[in-house]
Every structure is written in structure tokens, then in C-alpha cells.
Write a structure and sequence with these properties.
Metallo-B-lactamas, MBL fold metallo-hydrolase, RibonucZ/Hydroxyglut_hydro, 272 residues, Sec-metab_biosynth-thioest
């Protein structure tokens, strides 16, 4: 699910900003340090979100360089009241690998900037794939983390993922004239507006398919995912079920479906 792995970006000259140090990999740490020019140092370590393929190496990189770790917050920061309630009731992620031990040295608020090495980046809180997800704007370019990727759509897995927030974050990104996106996995996106529009269409189509399936009668997440994601390869079906759950929670919050006996992974959903 990480395509060719995690892209770690080094930005600036002299005092370098590192974006998404990556997984806990000594080889990745060595490659990152080797990429610094003679005399350069790491001035700040910025993490888009606390998944195991993004944040764990921040600890070793901080130990090696002394640079502070910056992020929106800890692993559960930014959850909506509904997601907090579901988590308290026992809903856990789908195995996507939350770095539960992650805590930044300093939290970055929405709109806050980080400057070093002759560059300045702006933190944009874009919850959806993860409650505390940040995109990082560099002028008309954006380090888009896992929110917008060119090779695949993002996993949205409650309670860490939130489909309603995901769509609102896409709408927010669509209001600015971006030139290029640098995702955390895969190649740069050279037509950000078209890719955002494509992702919105994709999610709305999945939502419509779920509503069509529910028009036939009440069903569980498992049954709905089997119908709506019939073209999905078997190894990706666990992720598809999590996306289906995320859509159903969003539809429930919008009062379009009801859950029996209560909102949960095991509920039977039906149209209102």
C-alpha cells in the first residue's frame, strides 16, 4: 500500500527541512543523512501524519541531528467527536499501522509556517486519511502526504480516517491554484486540479453505489463492500471494507442512513 515506499523530502540549503522521515529503517536513515551536503544540518523534521511508514524514523533522526520534530499532534490528535466516541467504544483501525507512540516536540497549527534553509512552508490541516494529517504548502507547490496521490486513492479507515473530513479537505485544496503536488508515495502530480476532481468523482461514485445497494435493503459493511468493491483484488478487500465503513459513517452523520442497533463496524445499515 506504499507503492515504491515512502518519499522523504529534503528542502532548503544549509539548514534543511526534512518532510516525512519514514519508517524505522537504519538503511533509510543512513541514506537520508548521506543526502546532506557537506556542512549542512537538519533544522526541522516535519511529519505529515503518524502512520508507521511516515513517522517512526523521526525519533532516530532527532537523536542523530538534534532537530525538533514538528507535526499536528500525537497519533489521536484531531479526531472528531464521532470518531472519538467510536474509538472509546472499541473501534480500532484496519491494520494500516498507526504509530501510537508518536508525539512531536511542537505541534503545528493550521496555517502556521516553518522556515529554514531559505524556504518557508505552510502547514495545512487536511484531516481525512488521518485525523492529524498535514499537507505542506511551498508557494504553489504542495507536499500532499497521503491525502492526494497520483497512483492510487487514499485509504480512509475509521476511527483514524474520516470520509466527511476527507472530502472537505479535498474541497479546501481545490480552492488554490497549485502547480505541482509531491505525494508521500509515488511520482509527483503535475495537474493537481484534475487529480483532485478525479478523486472527488471517485468517492462520490462509491457513495452512490453504496446508496444503490442499500436501496435493496439493510446490509452489513461486509456485504456492502462485497457488492460495491466487486472489482477489487482480494488482497485489497480489507482496505475496501474500511473505505466502505468510512463512507457509511459519513452517510450516517449526514442523516442519510441509519445503523442498527448502533453505529459500529458490526451494524446493519439501512436508508432513511
Amino acid at each position: 500500500m506504499t507503492h515504491w515506499g515512502t518519499n522523504t523530502f529534503l528542502l532548503g540549503e544549509g539548514g534543511v527541512i526534512v518532510i516525512d522521515p519514514g519508517p524505522d529503517s537504519p538503511a533509510h536513515l543512513a541514506a537520508l543523512l548521506a543526502a546532506l551536503e557537506p556542512g549542512e544540518e537538519v533544522a526541522a523534521i516535519v511529519v505529515t501524519h503518524a502512520h508507521l511508514d511516515h513517522s517512526p524514523l523521526a525519533r532516530a533522526l532527532k537523536e542523530a541531528t538534534g532537530a525538533p520534530v514538528l507535526a499536528f499532534g500525537g497519533a489521536s490528535a484531531g479526531r472528531s467527536p464521532v470518531m472519538r466516541r467510536l474509538a472509546e467504544a472499541g473501534l480500532a483501525g484496519g491494520g494500516e499501522g498507526v504509530d501510537a507512540a508518536f508525539h512531536p516536540d511542537r505541534s503545528l497549527a493550521d496555517g502556521e509556517t516553518v522556515a529554514a534553509g531559505g524556504v518557508r512552508i505552510e502547514a495545512l490541516h487536511t484531516p481525512g486519511h488521518f485525523a492529524g494529517h498535514l499537507c505542506l504548502a511551498w508557494g504553489d507547490r504542495l507536499f500532499s502526504g497521503d491525502h492526494v496521490m497520483g497512483w492510487a486513492s487514499s485509504l480512509v479507515s475509521p476511527p483514524d480516517g474520516d470520509m466527511g473530513a476527507f472530502m472537505r479537505s479535498l474541497d479546501r485544496l481545490a480552492t488554490r491554484g497549485w502547480r505541482r503536488f509531491y505525494p508521500a508515495h509515488g511520482a509527483p502530480v503535475d495537474d493537481p486540479a484534475a487529480r483532485i476532481a478525479e478523486l472527488i468523482r471517485h468517492r462520490r461514485a462509491r457513495e452512490a453505489a453504496l446508496l444503490t445497494a442499500l436501496a435493496k435493503g439493510p446490509a452489513t459493511v461486509e456485504a456492502l463492500a462485497t457488492q460495491v468493491y466487486a472489482d477489487t483484488p482480494a488482497p485489497l478487500m480489507p482496505a475496501a471494507r474500511r473505505n466502505a465503513l468510512a463512507h457509511l459513517i459519513d452517510l450516517w452523520e449526514r442523516n442519510l442512513v441509519q445503523a442498527d442497533p448502533e453505529l459500529s463496524l458490526d451494524a446493519r445499515f439501512s436508508l432513511i
